[in-house]
Predict the structure.
Amino acid sequence: MDLGIKDRTALVCGASKGLGRACAFALAREGVHVFLNARNADSLKVTADEIAVATGARVTIVAADITTPGGRDAALRACPDPDILITNAGGPPPGDFRQVEREDWLRAIESNMLTPILLIRATIDGMISRRFGRIVNITTSGVKSPATYPQLGISIGVRAGLTGFIGTLARQVTKHNVTINGLLPGRFMTDRLQQNLNFTAVQSGISLDEEIARAQKLIPAERFGHPDEFGAFCAFVCSAHAGYITGQNLMLDGGAFPGLV
Ligand code: NAP
């Protein structure tokens, strides 16, 4: 299926590894010129080369911390008018909220709520004037299912703030063929998941292998997701065919969410 986005441009944040990398890969396969952002320039370059060789797409890198004003400026200088924006970065660390100081909360708000909003603010009017825009915020299934992740309350709290704001904005811009959706990962095998599993294994006094087996059993699919599955879905949500999907928070979780909506 041709997704109809060849020669579009995409700014993909947090793109050297994991879910962001998979989204960039899938967009590049569609002939999108991808601008990849992450902090570590070396791993970003490795990923950029892999994507360019595998897809033949144009790939540009911006090594910067996207959660800082300087990092956002650098990304937007390189790619001021993206047709597609994927917001993504690491999440706040897991832990008991009693140990979390005000400054940690402010940092989490800056990185996982304000950064996506500021990137959207900087790019959405261009999308509106070109009558095409696809914005995807990578958040977490915890936004719909917070009780599943008691140790990730800070992450879920700030991302829920972003989700609420997007619920208002998405409906204001969709008449211009600009969509904004949240993709909500359950558990995908990435470095981030590995860190979270390590944390939970230590907390529970069990081995990492035992924790992996326990966590997979809780998912109806009885496995973790593969980042490529996430990337392929992201590319569809960014496609020309997905203009009628907006303001949604789309769960990719192997059936783990127990409710209907
Ligand atoms: P990951 O494998 O750790 O990859 C994170 C990527 O983001 C890396 O490329 C990293 O590169 C980059 N990054 C981190 N902080 C950044 C920053 N400040 N500025 C720019 N780039 C930054 O993580 P992931 O599993 O793909 O997770 C992506 C998002 O999904 C995270 O917000 C995570 O909380 C959320 N999520 C993931 C899962 C899961 O199962 N994997 C589940 C729920 C939610 P550098 O370190 O070089 O910057």
